[in-house]
Fold:
Amino acid sequence: MGWFVSSKGKTSIACEFPNVIVRERLKKVEIQGFSRMTVPQFFYEELYKKLESCFYNFRYTLIIDCRFEYINTTSAKWLHILLKSLQELTREKGMIEINWYFESDDETILETGELLKTTLYIPFHLREI
Structure:
């Protein structure tokens, strides 16, 4: 999939999809921008595969930085499914941590993060920017 970007280069895509940047040295994946797909299922299923691969390649450690400018309801639902599936990877061993960034005047992004946080047992940090 062309929308996965490594730290070595960037790929420009339509602003319906968030950018995904893998920072191997930091054991981190950044998801940023807009998520306003009509049918986000395929994007988030492929993203899950990529994040699962990172979790194992990073030796059972993964930090996910979410910096959404906008995320529609359908995308939020699929992101929730993805995060619930990822947390299952940590049952036996490993650590996944979520950093959810929001601007102080963006109640929608904050509320989406708060909702996700209440349904997950992995570390989930709300970070105002």
Summary: Confidence is low (pLDDT under 50) at residues 1-13. The CA atoms of residues 22 and 29 lie 5 Å apart. The longest strand covers residues 61-71. The helical segments are 41-57, 73-89, 107-118.
